[in-house]
């Protein structure tokens, strides 16, 4: 497996929609700490949660998440 | 899954034994307390109940006793993942304790099996609880600072 990491534009897209972490958490059916850890790239969400987030933000999963090269 | 179930079965069997049979052993930590026999037995029964409660909490995610808000919090995706990480740590500590007891048993008179099971169970659950608490604390602190 290559050393690739999951990056995301969740914070950017969320603020564009004028949502707080708590509001997005409510829409996606998770807690605010989950949203926070995803935004800070501490936690890699499941496919189901990724789809739920994309749906809540009216965008695609690819627009929210992308692969980055890990720098040593 | 079968392996985890088997280890869990051994743990539960140990707990049932602890409950159902009179204690012929005395844990070192309870040695002084056991001078007051009734108090010592009560302490053992209460600690076994606490341990079982903790075990149930890990297994069922608070579904048996928790209010809806707690159940939602326990079903949260990150919490589920952190619980799984904590349980993995608990099992590793449990197996480590088991290996250590076996190693000690090779050079010293073997300890009572029930005693060994209790040491492993307490060690595993304590490690799992501490790891879960630390992971949750770190996540909540980071979310609070945002």
Structure description:
The complex is a heterodimer of chains A (about 70) and B (about 150). Chain A is of the alpha+beta class. Chain A has one domain: lambda repressor-like DNA-binding domains (434 Repressor (Amino-terminal Domain)), CATH 1.10.260.40. Chain A is built from five helices and two strands; from the N terminus they run βαααααβ. In chain A, strands 1-2 form a two-stranded antiparallel ribbon. The longest helix of chain A has 10 residues, at about 45-55. The model of chain B has no long low-confidence stretch (mean pLDDT about 75). Chain B is globular. In chain B, about 80% of the residues lie in helices and about 0% in strands. In chain B, helix 1 (about 1-20) packs antiparallel against helix 2, helix 1 (about 1-20) crosses helix 5 (about 115-145) and helix 4 (about 75-105) packs antiparallel against helix 5 (about 115-145). By secondary structure, chain B is mainly α. Chain B is built from five helices and no strands. Chain B has one domain (about 1-145). At the A-B interface, helix 3 of A face helix 4 and helix 5 of B.
Q: What share of residues are in beta strands of chain A?
A: 5-15%
Q: Care to count the β-strands of chain B? A: 0
Strand content of chain B: under 5%
Give the strand order of the largest sheet of chain A, numbering strands 1, 2, ... along the chain.
1-2
Mean pLDDT of chain B: 76
State the fourth-level CATH superfamily of chain A: lambda repressor-like DNA-binding domains
Tell me the overall shape of chain A.
globular
């Amino acid at each position: 497996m290559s050393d690739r990491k999951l990056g995301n534009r969740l914070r950017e897209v969320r603020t564009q929609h004028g949502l707080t972490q708590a509001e997005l958490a409510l829409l996606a059916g998770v807690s605010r700490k989950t949203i926070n850890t995803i935004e800070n790239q501490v936690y890699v969400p499941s496919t189901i949660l990724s789809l739920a987030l994309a749906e809540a933000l009216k965008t695609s999963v690819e627009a929210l998440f992308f692969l980055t090269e890990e720098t040593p | 899954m079968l392996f985890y179930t088997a280890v869990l079965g051994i743990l539960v069997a140990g707990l049932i034994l602890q409950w159902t049979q009179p204690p012929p052993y005395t844990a070192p930590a309870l040695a002084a307390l056991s001078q007051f026999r009734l108090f010592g037995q009560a302490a053992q029964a209460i600690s076994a109940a606490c341990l079982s409660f903790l075990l149930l909490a890990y297994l069922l995610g608070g579904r048996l006793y928790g209010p809806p808000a707690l159940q939602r919090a326990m079903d949260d995706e990150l919490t589920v993942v952190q619980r799984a990480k904590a349980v993995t740590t608990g099992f590793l500590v449990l197996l480590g304790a088991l290996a250590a007891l076996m190693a000690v048993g090779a050079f010293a008179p073997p300890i009572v099996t029930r005693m060994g099971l209790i040491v492993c169970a307490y060690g595993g659950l304590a490690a799992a609880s501490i790891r879960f608490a630390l992971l949750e604390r770190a996540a909540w602190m980071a979310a609070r600072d945002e």
